[in-house]
Amino acid sequence: MIEILTWTSIIAGGILILLLLLSIIGGLDLDLDVGSTDVETDSGGLGVLKAILTFVSVSSWIIKVLLAAEKHMGVALGIGIFCGILAILALNYLLRFLMKGESNVNWEITDALYQNGEVYLKIPATNGNGIVNVKVNGVVRELKAISAEKTEISTGQSIVVVDVDGEYVKVKNA
Fold it and tell me: Right CATH number for 109-173 from 3.90.1150.10, 2.40.50.140, 3.30.420.40, 2.60.120.580?
């Protein structure tokens, strides 16, 4: 029984470590999704396959150690199951912590709507455009801007984006 638990733990742990290294270092996510449920997330979620491997590896190793120490089978199973669940929670927390710095760099000009900013290059009243600095998704972006009220807006003034027109944002004084 102890030898079977040892090999189960070693094989499950080896596969788990291989999958984790591939997903952390190489960005390769070999995992199992269950239907259309939201079981596994790309932002540090553990995933069904990795959770099962973690549980099997840790619980079988703990049960093996307790049985080798001549503890009762029921006590060994209980403690092993508890430690397996605890290991899943700890690994999930660790992966979420590692992925916390990941950010979404995709953005659209419409994300700037109703955001405050500052004029970088003067915006003429008509027939022309200027440049504004607007914080979009946590990053300050330089956007081509035209005046929504057909008035000149000078450099350094606070603005708010009220509309989007193609590649331009329409702004007015804040």
Answer: 2.40.50.140
